[in-house]
Amino acid sequence: MSTSWGNGSAAVESLLRQAQEQQRRLAEFQQQRAELRVTGESPDGLVRVTVDGDMKVGGIDLNARAMRLDSYTLAESLQAAIDAAYAAFAERQQELMTDMLGGSDLVRRAQAGNLTPEDWFRQFGVDLTDPTRGLRR
Fold first, then answer.
1. Which of 36, 37, 72, 94 has the maximal Cβ count within 10 Å?
2. 119 vs 91, which has greater pLDDT?
3. CB distance 41 to 84 below 8 Å
């Protein structure tokens, strides 16, 4: 059996380049997520809440009319705005992840916990079950 180390070296270099690209894409995703700011609004339009990249409420805007509400109704409006902001954050984060992974099917599988490392690398033409892949010709 003859092995061409030159071809194997090229395969390793290709795999390394792919891994570096994924690392770059992940870093970009993390940066975009950190900079993310989304706003949610209560159905009555009296309360707006902003959530930042750490998923912390970073701002609450109350319409002057909200101050006329009883405490229970104001609390409901505030909770609705917070829920809307978190839903918008989750949606935007999923969009960013879809862009990073290059396909919504991968995102759905990753979120469901059904994405294996083998499946991830297979999208790049790498078969992790074959340790001699690219070393033989």
1. 36
2. 91
3. yes
pLDDT at 7: 58
Neighbours of 58 (CB within 10 A): 15
Q: What pLDDT, in 10s, does the model give residues 18-34?
A: 778 878 888 888 888 88
How would you write the chain as a 3-class SS string?
CCCCHHHHHHHHHHHHHHHHHHHHHHHHHHHHHHHCCEEEECCCCCEEEEECCCCCEEEEEECHHHHHCCHHHHHHHHHHHHHHHHHHHHHHHHHHHHHHHCCHHHHHHHHHCCCCHHHHHHCCCCCCCCCCCCCCC
